[in-house]
Amino acid sequence: xxxxxxxxxxxxxxxxxxxxxxxxxxxxxxxxxxxxxxxxxxxxxxxxxxxxxxxxxxxxxxxxxxxxxxxxxxxxxxxxxxxxxxxxxxxxxxxxxxxxxxxxxxxxxxxxxxxxxxxxxxxxxxxxxxxxxxxxxxxxxxxxxxxxxxxxxxxxxxxxxxxxxxxxxxxxxxxxxxxxxxxxxxxxxxxxxxxxxxxxxxxxxxxxxxxxxxxxxxxxxxxxxxxxxxxxxxxxxxxxxxxxxxxxxxxxxxxxxxxxxxxxxxxxxxxxxxxxxxxxxxxxxxxxxxxxxxxxxxxxxxxxxxxxxxxxxxxxxxxxxxxxxxxxxxxxxxxxxxxxxxxxxxxxxxxxxxxxxxxxxxxxxxxxxxxxxxxxxxxxxxxxxxxxxxxxxxxxxxxxxxxxxxxxxxxxxxxxxxxxxxxxxxxxxxxxxxxxxxxxxxxxxxxxxxxxxxxxxxxxxxxxxxxxxxxxxxxxxxxxxxxxxxxxxxxxxxxxxxxxxxxxxxxxxxxxxxxxxxxxxxxxxxxxxxxxxxxxxxxxxxxxxxxxxxxxxxxxxxxxxxxxxxxxxxxxxxxxxxxxxxxxxxxxxxxxxxxxxxxxxxxxxxxxxxxxxxxxxxxxxxxxxxxxxxxxxxxxxxxxxxxxxxxxxxxxxxxxxxxxxxx
Length: 663
Prior knowledge:
alpha+beta, CATH 3.30.450.20, seven-stranded antiparallel beta sheet, 24 strands
């Protein structure tokens, strides 16, 4: 029987990167994310995250006020239930909200002790028996707008890098859902205004009027007086009064509409009027031209409606469309843009007319046409597209790389899409890859030659060396080895980040692996007058784990060398192996100065050093722990530490216990 980590509900091991990416794609493809019922979208998202991570509790929190973060939906794995309504005040939890404003992710193995979440210990954590938290920030155009909170109860849990990446991606999805929900609210407000108009019409709340085009006489129903803001007892309406009420900038528009009606058309115009007090209102006039008695008897008979509220909503929507820094556009089923925003024109260099005059496929890079057409077909089948990338031709001749999110509204048969310009991001990625390639091909080869030459000279094969010459050559050789180690670490981290590192996972006896690591690093300890001591029980010799033994040796070398470097002379570094429930725990403990509290949250970051000057004296690149963490988590393990200033440090590895050859 395969043994799995105890923290996963139902005894299931955490999912790995490819599995989470597949689930992410399924979530993004679901139409529920963009359902008209926003609560269902949030409930779908929290359930999917919980099932993907086997997390006990997953919740979405949004700011309902500047100082209040409110739970929109909380899903509990065990009871399969949803609840909402809990709120947190920013002023009561300053450290947590400060952490949210500084980082996109808070990963707390021990929530009661983590600097960002410890404030919740007395209330929120204890009441729900929460041990571990993984919080990802939801961003909007205005900045921080909410949080996705993943929680584990009863048992503490280490969140893997893959899980952290997945939750960060889900926070981006939540940002899109939140933006979409805001759009829905505006649309619902607009539809409500239209419904009110319809009700007003049914109950004669629309104003009616009749104008004699020959004599200038004008009749208004009571509602028209109200719309125009005049007292029916003090006012006798005529066409001259009506024209005086029209906003000067709209006069030509109204006169042109009346002229079209006189030629057999319909008077249908939206314009502004100015009330006696100076207030401006928008009105919609519709009328029919009749002329039963010749020109002198010609009349316009119609209605007028105050649409000021609807116009304000339209203006707000237009402002959102105009001011957005991201590309926003609307396309029809014939592959033509019907509307594009200013950001689209700015990013591609075309005018709005140029973008609307040609099929959008004319702008797409030829190599991206087929994949784009496949996505469009998928959208027409009712699926939302998110994260799709293609290249658009800039007016100056180069291509701009865009990342799209889009959905089709079957009611209007139009595609609504947004995109971000990621050209610069891809350029930076390319520069990084080129740098790594340069390190690999241009530095590694000559460095190997230099190292070999130095080793040959130091061996004495080319003749005896004076004391000073020997010292200088040894110094050069040591620095050559440090540079080689730095390059190897950089290349390993790049491979891990790109998912290109290969692991040969096999079942191994833990004690044998650790014994070999102690033997391999014993000389390093002796050179620094530090003793390596291995402790284990007889039962520990029966423990097995499923790992890549070469990468495991790399991790142990990093941990042991760190412990030796920061131990005083004649000290002892203790390496121990023991079983911790259904896991194997390997500890490396030193008696050094310990890790400062302010540095503990940074310990596994690249190039992090608690004391830069001291670290340079002792050696080290600041990459060892970052690399060890990524290697450990890539083999389904976890790494952590305990430390107190002046009392030494214990770094530990946890790997799932393998109980059979088939694990």
